[in-house]
Amino acid sequence: MIKRLIDMTAALLGLVVLAPLFIIIGLLIKLESRGPVFFKQVRIGKGFRQFTLYKFRTMVKEFSGPKVGQVYGDNQHLTRIGGLLRKYRLNELPQLINVLKGDMSLVGPCPEVPYYVEKFKEDYEEVLKVRPGLTDLASLKYIDEQAILKKAWRQEEEYTNHLRPEKIRLSQLYLEHASLFFDLAVIVQTILQLLGLRSVILKVSDRDNDNQDEVAFLEDSPVLHFLWKYRRPLIIGLDLVLVILANYFAFWLRFDGVIPPDAFSLFIETLPWLLLIRGVAFMVFRLNEGLWRYISIWDLKNIFGGVLSGTIAFYGLVVWGLQISSYPRSIFIVDSILLVGFLVGIRLAVRIFEKRKVFKKTKRVLIIGAGDAGEKIVREMQTNSTVSYRPIGFIDDDLSKIGKRIHGVKVLGARQELSRIISMYQPEEVLVALPGTNPANFRAIITSLEPFNVPIKTLPNLRDILDGKVSISQIRDVAIEDLL
User: Fold this and answer.
1) How far is CA 282 from the centre of its chain?
2) Do 65 and 84 belong together in one domain?
3) Phi, psi of 457 (to 5 degrees)
4) CA-wise closest residue to 165 among 124, 133, 195
5) Which domain holds residue 297?
6) Residues 253-292: pLDDT tens digits?
7) Angle, CA of 194, 116 and 54, to the nearest 5°
8) Residue 205 burial class via C-beta count within 10 angstroms: exposed 0-12, middle 13-18, buried 19 and up
9) Pair type for strands 405-406 and 203-204
10) pTM
11) How far is 98 from 85, CA to CA, in rounded Å?
12) Do 31 and 106 belong to one domain?
């Protein structure tokens, strides 16, 4: 229901915003060749229901396309405007009408023509349990499908025996991971591809193995290579832009959104001095040398130190050097707070982007022990993209920890409440994160878990974990030695 509401809202908004573009594209299509603006074709939707799919016409009217309605390897009948529309997938924008009508969704399996659905009906039974979509994993992987088919010796055979089965597999993979967050990631990745920004933010693991799926096939674009090559001067420039923004917004907040002319003149007059002082302070504290993807407490300390020292130096220049008595004292404080927020925020945003989520099938794990070992394991589960565990909660007998959270994971209760917690949260595995506990205590835990028929894992000894000698990869089954 929520997804359908989002689809309707986005489709309606998109049609309204893109209405001028629709008119321009329609005029260009009509001016270049005779025929209708829209291309209509029957596709199969949710529950094997037929619907009419809308696209902008990209081929001459006289060419109706292959009978199967899917394989277009020959571009000799493609119009000039049609080639441009296909390159950026603008020809698919009218499918927003299908989304609004309820035939399609923004994200979902690619809608297929009746020919293939009837021929391979069993393959589509699971896929067609949901609405087809404008984009999905198959659309991402085969965004250049026409070019692939054009190179094939036998296009129909290539599509039937290779592309179509792979599309089915990717559609099933989408169904396995489907969620609102996953849909958003697919949409963002699609936009990046269409813009030529070949950054991968979406990686998905296959259901049958632990390897990342070939959805993550993109490489960095020349734009990103340029940004990396000249990253230091660009970082300096960006930091100085943030200095200007912080100072301007400090004035804006000080005067309740309406900066008087004399105050604005003061802003312009002192800005070059502020940029010079901030630039020197940032160089002294080496703010332009760190790799943002590894931002740490060291970087945060340098940011605070650079901003504070720059503010003190600027205050001294304004009050004693330039002797500007009318400069509002509150500007110094507000400007510093805003600048720290901007500098930290943009660096954290880059780190979050670098730690992009790899979507894969995970096991729901309940962790017994909310101590140092449990904390370290949960942290690695959340930051290591190859880990197949998802922590759902802690069990700990320390009453002061119950209800608290460690890295966002809640301590659900004590061991006495194990039965209720397992019944409510239904973990797929239980991890005993109590390295070094005595065998009697360990046996008591194992005995309490026996009625639930859930796999039990444990860790090596605590000293090795804290020394960094072992990690989550060494989680193992309970051995007889643990009980003796």
Assistant:
1) 31
2) yes
3) -120, 165
4) 124
5) 230-354
6) 999 888 999 999 999 999 999 999 999 998 888 887 665 5
7) 45
8) buried
9) unpaired
10) 0.52
11) 19
12) yes
